[in-house]
Amino acid sequence: MTDHLIVNATLPGGEVADLVLRDGVIASLGAETAAPRDGVALETHDARGLIALPGLVDLHTHLREPGREDAETVETGTAAAARGGFTAVHAMANTDPVADTAGVVEQVWRLGTEAGHCDVQPVGAVTVGLGGERLAELGAMADSAARVRVFSDDGKCVADPALMRRALEYVRAFDGVVAQHAQEPRLTEGAQMNEGELSGRLGLQGWPAVAEEAIIARDCLLAAHVGSRLHVCHVSTAGSVEIVRWAKQKGWDVTAEACPHHLLLTDELAATYDPTYKVNPPLRSAEDVAALRAGLADGTIDVVATDHAPHPHEDKDCEWPAAAFGMTGLETALSVVQATMVDTGMLDWAGVAERMSAAPARIGRLGGHGRPLAVGEPANITLYDPSAVRTVDETRTASLSRNTPYRGMELPGRVVATFLRGRPTVLDGELV
Amino acid sequence: MRRHLLSAADLSRDDAELVLATAQELRSLADRPIKKLPALRGRTVVNLFFEDSTRTRISFEAAAKRLSADVINFAAKGSSVSKGESLKDTALTLEAMGADAVVCRHWASGAPHRLATAGWSRSCVVNAGDGTHEHPTQALLDAFTLQRHLGTSSGGLDGRRVAIVGDVLHSRVARSNALLLRTLGAEVTLVAPPTLLPYGVESWGVETSYDLDAVLPKTDAVMMLRVQRERMNASYFPTVREYSRRYGLDGRRMAKLAEHAIVMHPGPMVRGMEITADVADSDRSVIVEQVTNGVAVRMAVLYLLLGGSEPAIAGVPEAGGAR
Amino acid sequence: MPAPTPEPEQGTDPEASSSLGRVVLDVAAVNRALTRIAHEVLERNRGAQDVVLLGIPTRGVPLAHRVAARIAEVEDVVVPVGALDVTMYRDDLRMRPARALLPTDIPPGGIDGRTVVLVDDVLYSGRTIRAALDAMNDVGRPAAVQLAVLVDRGHRELPIRADFVGKNLPTSTHEKVAVRLSELDDEAEGVTIR
Questions:
Q1: Where is the Aspartate/ornithine carbamoyltransferase Asp/Orn-binding domain (chain B) (predicted)?
Q2: Do chains C and B touch (3 or more CB pairs under 8 A)?
Q3: What ipTM was reported for this prediction?
Q4: Nearest residue on chain B to C87, alpha-carbon basis
Q5: Do A115 and A85 meet the contact criterion of CB atoms below 8 Å apart?
């Protein structure tokens, strides 16, 4: 195993330091230069001008395997994650078969280990087959080799309030959390885009904000009532931010995530009828975008999660109502956060480290991730050049899919290197 | 190059007036012994219908044939439930066959827009009704009919009051008419129960009302929209009887209209639901004339888009750009 | 996109009206020419019994009406007057943006079995008249067709000649001939060359 010396990296707090990565941990941190150990190579990386962040953790990734290997595999999805600066991703359960048994989650977990680009932490389904009717064997998944702690029917809402209550209660036994896809199904039948002035004009069925907010409010009340943890996936509306803020003020154990695309893009893009911009929950108004940014800045929203949702070309190269929901996001997340939060002065790099590494690791109970950059901590590190500028080219991706909404857009920043427990997975922006 | 008619919003007032003036000339063709003009000889017009609509298809077919175009009818299966034939593959096929224009009817809002801008085809695209979005040639024929009956001395519709009544929410006819009639200077009032008005309709620049009886005496034309019975099951209104009582046009209501006012319907009618038979067949009704005018207006659109080296009307921004 | 303007007969140029150019027919000369054409039509057809005048828009139409009025003065007979738009029959239709149509107005009696006198302002390449013959073909079958023009400026590209000519005007192809009529134009009536 090679040791690594990173020189002149700027830590999230702003201080410049050299880091020695040895045996999977940060062996030293400071200005002193490390001498090579006997028989162990020492590779030096010049990180002048680069930010060193604790390896990013995604709470919300669709790796599509098993079942839709034409859209993404664990191998390609985690490669994209590493290129985006991630050292761990939570793989959502809406695969085929659904990750609702110990067998499936262990399979996904093992595929992640074999790929080796980043840690894959499977998310377990809350209900059997995402059917919303019976609880899946949550305990078996928790006890499996995959050690599942996050449970979600993402893609579908656990709409039945009694079932949601039971799930919230049940996962307490193993310190789990239910991550809710908040979408009232009856209010969103056939929904295609944000319900607003534009949906009326375009004749596309609206997805009203209230359909998200009503579920979040209900779930916050339920979580408070039974004293459980609740995590809210992809918060997209100003009203949702308001409700989460209220729940936190009450002292309830509620966390929430926002997606990069909801921090940058608005529903105006639907006017192109280009399904690249079709996502669930949908792109919202500029006011919603502003509220999400403010919520992320003040900590109401704990986490930025990608909701990376790869789709094969044919599922997007069609009529809008026939197209699949979702956008890729792993390789652009940090750049979008820089553009929307850092460059606007709403969040510093320490804040980015908290929202994109520490908080998601904490919520997912991933002990080995999201740790501060300190001696003895796991050497999960992302080196990021905030001064770079790039034009997004959808063909230059490690993902199998190309449905990025940022195609042709100029975004700031570039992930230069990613280290997973002291081993580089990405160097000079390319996979190792 | 601008070469499509996808939305009534694509038409400036000059564009719209040119279409109507052209249609006016072409309408007289129906009275001539030879109902044919050579303008589109050698051009191929494809009627691409992903949704059954015999009357619209026949109207476009007659229009294209009277202009001497070759017409290919392509009825593709596929609904919102079963995705069926891919629009893209169909477009590529038509492109390979050398279609100069594709007249597209589709269940999906925005499908003609995709056809025009996704880079699948270079044909000129005419929206013949897409989902719950728009039906611009229907609006043009309605405007043409209105102009013949109510036109100002300048031929415009300035200050004329038109009430559009019924299921505005699901109506592509209402959307296109609201846009076009406003462009032509008319004052539009949408009349429907609140459940059947689109979210955000306040921004459309038209009046809205829930009270048909209050609107009728002030209107110069009343356009009744089809209301599907199935809407009742989704609780848009409680019963057919209640709907008809509040928003249907019967003889008693028609009596509230001004002397000169006309009654329109884009068809197909649900007699007994939104309109009674005696109203539909009365001399106030111009419903049959609308059909005749449809051919002339569609001829005008096809001629202006295809007749010259480049289209004389309408267009959309280049692909990819948000509007 | 602005509406396309009606296509003037080749060789005329309304733009030139501001800078007038050389006057080749003034208002009195135009009137004399039309009077002579009216007499010639009557002579050629031994009266005006079966004559129908069809003006080619734009300027052929008022000219046709003026000829009809003179015929009425001389013979006390009302000659049917109509308009025949040739836009869709033009052989250069595909070479320019689609053009607005101009009115076609066939008199109630139709043209079957009648003697149609086509009336236009300037005869140049002859292509407009060819289009008019095609257009007429779709309207009916006249017994005979004759052509009356205010100005014949030469340079024919098709085997077409006028039966009645107000003035033969030798021109070169780069010159522009403009006809202005009081019914349509603000400027002084007359024919100019530039």
A1: 159-305
A2: yes
A3: 0.91
A4: B39
A5: no
